């Protein structure tokens, strides 16, 4: 169809209607091809075992990991391993419980789930995000372990990594990258 007057409202509505019809026909054709492929699999895949096995084995070959490049892994020293594996001392637990301001009661090891609404006026369960309120005992154990691991992190985290190291932040990497790119683009302009 050739539009004689592109500003005509009737021509524009006809064009929109034709586009909608074209998209509907394309979706219908795509759906038909999908049904035909499923029908071919149903006919040939279940009856013809050779076809099924060829399909399955070719997929297995594609998904197989034949080799991996060796990655050097840093290992903890014997002293660090012993530090992580030793039993909790009463002093460690007491120091951490004092920091958490624990009060002895019967709900020491309980945990609760709170539902936080994702949207205003939430009505269905999908509109809520569950939040686990872990009991105090779990907090103590995890914080004592975190403190122990913090002393061992320097052994396993590389010097070029910025995460998990006191005094370094991941944002620093972004800033350094921006500075390098800016410097390179200035040098390129000078040439």
Could you outline the blueprint of secondary structure elements for this entry?
Layout: H1 9-47, H2 49-63, H3 78-85, H4 90-99, E1 112-117, E2 128-133, H5 136-156, H6 170-190
Antiparallel strand pairs: 1-2
Helix pairs in contact: 1-2, 4-5
What would the principal axes of the Cα set say about the shape? extended
Number of strands: 2
Number of helices: 6
DSSP helix fraction: 55-70%
Strand % is: 5-15%
Average pLDDT reading? 77
Report what the structure shows.
The chain has 191 residues and is mainly alpha-helical. The protein folds into 2 domains: 14-49; 78-179, no CATH class. Helices cover 60% and strands 6% of the residues. It has 6 helices and 2 strands. It has helices spanning 9-47, 49-63, 78-85, 90-99, 136-156, 170-190; strands spanning 112-117, 128-133. The chain has a two-stranded antiparallel ribbon with strand order 1-2. Helix 1 crosses helix 2 (49-63). The longest helix is centred in the first third of the chain and has 39 residues, at 9-47. The protein is extended and about 85 Å long. The two termini are 54 Å apart. The mean pLDDT is 77.
Write a compact overview of the structure shown.
With 191 residues, this protein is mainly alpha-helical. Helix content is 60%, strand content 6%. Strands 1-2 form a two-stranded antiparallel sheet.
Keywords summarizing the entry:
60% helix
